[in-house]
Amino acid sequence: MHVEIVRVCLVVLTAIINHPLIFPKENGTVPENTEEIIQKMKEREEILRLEQLRLEQEIAEQEAIQKALEKSAESIEETKEEKVPWDMWTALSMVIFLLIELWRQDFQEGIWQDTGGEEDDMAVLGKALKGVAFPDKAALGSFYEKRILGTTGDMARMREMVEGFADDLLEALRSVCNRDADMEVEDCMGVGSMYENWRVHKPFVCDLIVPFAPPEPYSFRSQMWCSGDSFLPGYEQGYGTIKVCRADEDVTGCICDKTKLGEDMLCLLHSQANTTRASSEMEDLLCFKNTQYLDANQVMKWFQIAVTKAWSRISHKYEFDLCFSLLDSPGALKIKFRSGKSIAFNLTPVVQYENSDVYFISHFPRSSLTADLPSSTQWFLIFAVYERRFIQLVSKTLPHNACHLSCLQILSFLHSKQCSLTGPSGLTNYHLKTVMLHLLQTSPTKNWAPEKLEARLQDMLAFLEKCLHEKKLYHFFIGNGKIPAELSFPIIFQKAEPLNLFRPFVLHRDVYRKTVDTFHEMLRNMTALINEYMVHIPLVQINGIRKETL
């Protein structure tokens, strides 16, 4: 142990003694090429410094790349995590929305088709009817006999007179038309409230429609919004177009008028002569410019000119004058007697839909609720003949002196008088008539006995208020699959989507608000209005409004 300690001490002592810094001059030697060694060490140091910088730069670049990759991976992961729940919630929301929409449509269609099966339900449909004082049966009966029933005889005499004159006028019209070039006019038909025996408004106006057809060899081909061949844009529900076709023209349509065949190609179905004459022929056939579609404006101009010529031929036979009465209704005519009295009636040309009693009407009064049509080639469809037949068919199954028309007449009278007090509303007589048609179909026949007039009037008011609240009153024929088979009604309209007559109320909120207010005001004033026109009070004040009687 001691020997080892001694050896270590000797080694340390030797190292201290031989260290060049302690004894540099005596025991150390300095190399002769010191400057060269220093230069090499500096160069080596510079090389190591550059290498260090290069390595540091590469490490920094790799770290940046690594951080970018990590950041990108994190963002992708976050996107996936966010996208999965978003897509899931979007899909789930769409499914729920579609289910609710399908349920709502089925529920509402079921209501309008099945409403009235239970009479007790009608009493709670209209909230506004609660607290309204209805006239009793005696008052309603007396009012109906004094103010409405007496007009039936006047309507019958006026219908007879107008129909006789219209037949004579149309016969003269046929004589002044060119049978080879002009349209062929058929006999007129009476439609509307005057011929359904429920019109109450004076002056009475007869509505006559006149079917017409093109001369040979042409024919009409109709295209409707609910048919599969309605390829033209802008179709509205309840409207269609009428195409004028030659008898030898392919019904499916030839491509020669839609594509350019080239100078060296000819159509085997249509000759060159027919092609050159097509434009002028279509204009002569009252079509829209450069098309084969019948133009309602051109038809009305032709009809007015033809009626004027026909009247000039037979005017010497009558002791009155005939003129067109309304500028916005081209078919409105007025007979003026020398005594100053006058009779108004509408004579409107129509086109028959195939072999049915549905007609395209050239001019139909359009309210402010209805948007303007994009083209005069779109014609409105009317079902007036079937409506009259349905009322006649159902009337055969109702009790004697049934009150269905009485209810409609009273409601039409009350609404008209309320509008004369507070201004016009969006409701029309056709809306009121549609309400009656729905209730005729759904209510038991025994409920229309004459002694139940008050109850059925309340049903109509409650049904109408419900429709106003929901902004839904469906057309009676379009989309109604329960039309009696005896009417032979075209199946294409029964399978069509139901047409909501109150759809414009959704877009015109101001008119809707005015209509609802007028309806509620009519309910509040109903008893006063009936008493006013029943006891012949010369001047009456209703809710602060003074109005003279008729």
TrEMBL record:
Membrane topology designation: Single-pass type I membrane protein
Cell membrane listed as a keyword: yes
A single cellular component GO annotation: plasma membrane
Compartment annotation: Cell membrane; Nucleus outer membrane
A GO molecular-function annotation: protein kinase inhibitor activity
Location of the Mab-21-like HhH/H2TH-like domain: 406-479
Chain's role: Enhances Ca(2+)-mediated inhibition of inositol 1,4,5-triphosphate receptor (ITPR) Ca(2+) release.
UniProt record similarity statement: Belongs to the ITPRIP family.
Record-given protein name: Inositol 1,4,5-trisphosphate receptor-interacting protein
Source organism of this protein record: Turnix velox
Lineage: Eukaryota, Metazoa, Chordata, Craniata, Vertebrata
Name of the gene: Itprip
